[in-house]
Amino acid sequence: MRHERRQRQTSSGISFNAVPMVDVIFMLTIFFMLVSRFSSAEQIPMELPKPEHSQASVVKIPERVIINCRVNGLLPAESPQAVFSIGPNQPEPLDVIARRLVAMRQKSPNLKVVVRADRRLPYAQVREVMRMLANHNIGMLNVVAHVDEKN
Questions:
Q1: What is the pLDDT of residue 7?
Q2: Containing domain of residue 36, as a range?
Q3: How far apart are CA 100 and CA 74, in angstroms?
Q4: Mean of the pLDDT values across residues 97-118?
Q5: Going by DSSP bridges, is the β-strand pair 64-71/82-86 parallel, antiparallel, or unpaired?
Q6: Mean pLDDT estimate for the chain
Q7: DSSP class per residue in 67-102
Q8: Residue 37 in 3-state DSSP?
């Protein structure tokens, strides 16, 4: 019987190490999950108005403050009352919000204010926010409305 010896081929020392790639993908996944959570905190769910012939467009606004005008959930639906907050914060009286905006404007003269209002609120209650902004000389105001993306 004849036995043949098989020679083993030695590796050249070059191999693919997937561990760093998995680490990078894991870190990117965590980063994007956190960023999406922070950006969604600005957008409290509410019913926005849907104007029929809107000229509105989506605009990216740097140095902005969002004022949310929500319906107070504690009162009956027949007479909705507005509660106001800056971003996702707790509701505050308009005079407190005005003082905070004045302080923010001193730090950032190009401050822009975005007003988001629930469409169930009477316009007079939303106009209170606009009047407060005008009284404090904050002229950069945008109002949020639903944009029909079919056009």
A1: 60
A2: 16-151
A3: 26
A4: 86
A5: antiparallel
A6: 79
A7: EEEEE-TTS-TTS--EEEEETTSPPB-HHHHHHHHH
A8: helix
